[in-house]
Predict the 3D structure of the following.
Amino acid sequence: MLDKRKLFTVLKSGNVLSKIIFFGILVLQMSFINSCSVITKNTARETTLLIHGGQYDKSQWDDDLIFQRVSWYQEFNLLADVLWIKAPEGPFAAWFGKNELKEIESCPVFFIFIHYTNPYKKVSVGQIKSQITENGGKFVSLGHFSENLVQHPQFIENSLGVYKIEGLCMQNSDGVTVQIPGQQSKRILIE
């Protein structure tokens, strides 16, 4: 905030450069405050998350997992975050356990589904999951795959330790529109 004594001292002084600098700083402060007031309080962002390479037992690979991602924010607070990718084939499939592979084989479209909701806000993971199950989704435990994914350095670097990893069987890849109260709806679970 402005100190009135400093303001009067600068204005009374005959130093033109001081006045120019002072008013320049004042204009910048006012511009910053004004720009903050027009920021939308509720936003949704669509991005991706890349997991590069992997390892299982004595095997290592340089393939990528590229998760689609939708994040909902209230001001600067993350309300909910969902990431998904169609069940990977190739070397990452080594991370699945035998029962998980059976689930994948019996499912028309199987996704790895990672989610988080802020426990301090009034959005629950149940709100998101119920919209998915109402559209034919069935959640499946992925213990073996999860154990491997959470040990990946990029999973740790992206601070995803509080996220839950599940399998999700869908009847098609048309996607599901998720609506969080007070937020923009977004279509998720699209290949």
Notes: Residues 16-37 form the longest helix (22 residues). The chain has two domains: 4-37, 42-188.
